[in-house]
Amino acid sequence: MRYQITGKQIDVGESLQTHVETELGAMLEKYPGRPTDANVIFSKSGHEYVCEAVIHLSTGLNCTAKAKGTEIYATFADCAEKMDKQLRRYKRRLKDHHKERTTPVELFGAASYILAGTGEGDSDVAEPESLQPIIVAEMETKIPSLSVGEAVMQMELAGAPVLVFRNEKKDGVNVVYRRDDGNIGWIDP
Question: Does the keyword Cytoplasm apply (predicted)?
Answer without folding.
Answer: yes
